[in-house]
Amino acid sequence: MKIDLRSDTVTKPTKEMLEFMMQAKVGDDVFGEDETVKKLEERLANMFGKEKALFFPSGTMANQTAIKLHTNPGEQVICDKYGHIYNYESGGVAFNSGVSCKLLDGQRGMFTLNQVKEAINPLDYWYAQTSLVAVENTTNKGGGACWDFNELIKIKKVCLENKLGYHLDGARLWNALVAKKENPKQYGEIFDTISVCFSKGLGAPIGSVLVGDADIMKNAIRIRKVFGGNLRQAGYLAAAALYALDNHVDRLVGDHKKAREIGEVLTQKPQIKSVEPIETNIIIFELNDDVSEQVFFQRLVDRGIHIISMGSNKLRMVTHLNYTNDMHTAVLKALKGL
Ligand SMILES: Cc1ncc(COP(=O)(O)O)c(C=O)c1O
User: Fold this and answer.
1) Domain count, the chain
2) Which of 183, 217, 247 delimits the end of a domain?
3) Which residues does 285 contact at the CB level (< 8 Å), separation at least 6?
4) Which of 11, 24, 72, 193 is surrounded by the fewest CB atoms within 10 Å?
5) What are the tens digits of pLDDT across the range 297-338?
């Protein structure tokens, strides 16, 4: 049995999801004729209490579009040093928007109001103009950590005072909503733009949506086109997202429970220095200095378990839709016996 815990993006659509996709009513979305894409966009806009929503092929394209909407070349984005937009979007902030990142030294991908205040550049012309604060929830490199919503509200106030845009990379916001019993409207109220993904914990094969009010979203479709993201009969894909929203959100609780149970076993292992707190479906742990990452990795592979390295002797496991109860039992047993 191959057990793939590298990421929650490795899932394959379920039979029911595929059947639902096949029945989608589609049309040419460039002509605004894809009913299912429209349905998904309207649903997301309503869900977050925003005026507009736009479907994207990927979370990266949705984030990059948001950054482009909020900034002009030469300006600066404030984000965490662990931020996906900085680390894992191929330098897109510079390539697509011509902006730099002011990196904050946060905790597990999350920062504080005071750090934001200190990072805003003075208005003197020789500084890059700060124009956007970008937050990630849950944090990927931070081990699926969830923000304290009150801190997000405080940061919003500073954004308003300094006329800064406020973007949320919510690729795994669904996990945070379930873990913290929050709702999308709360987030819609404070963020100017929010990207969410259906291809992570929700198990769709592809798809993200960017939501925002009409004013900021005015040019989103043009930028998506510039980035090569025009869609035609994308309703088949939007249907996967609709199916996931109806059927795969509540079940995230189970992914989180499994992640915690893995964490409990890892904490007991002499080879492991530390396990980061587990709030959602991501487990990040650090090996002891005298334990070779390669050897540890290979021991797991020999038992059919595949995980991923995050660098600096840190490893990551992610629970997901295709990680069954049987697999979980096998993983716990294998880890105990390592
Ligand atoms: C936090 C976060 N944001 C954005 C993305 C980008 O999503 P995509 O792979 O769909 O471009 C990812 C991907 O894993 C992610 O973890």
Assistant:
1) 2
2) 247
3) 263, 266, 272, 273, 274, 275, 276, 314, 315
4) 72
5) 999 999 999 999 988 889 999 999 999 999 999 999 999 998
Whether 182 and 320 map to the same domain: the answer is no
Tell me, using a 6 A CB cutoff, whether residue 199 lines ligand 1. Answer: yes
Q: Identify which of 84, 87, 318 to mutate to test ligand 1's pocket (most ligand atoms within 8 A of the CB).
A: 84
- CB of 84 closer than 6 angstroms to any ligand 1 atom: yes
Q: Is 193 in the pocket of ligand 1 (CB under 6 A)?
A: no
pTM higher than 0.70: yes
Q: Give the domain CATH number at 329.
A: 3.90.1150.10
Looking at the structure, tell me whether residues 215 and 310 fall in a common domain.
no
Residue whose CB lies within 8 A of the most ligand 1 atoms, among 61, 65, 80, 88, for a mutation test: 88
**Host domain of residue 300:** 3-9+250-336
* Structure tokens, 110: 């999350």
**Which residue bears the tokens 């929700």?**
202
Burial class (CB in 10 A: 0-12, 13-18, 19+), 249: middle
193-236 residue pLDDT tens:
999 999 999 999 999 999 999 999 999 999 999 999 999 999 99
266 close to 283: Cβ distance less than 8 angstroms: yes
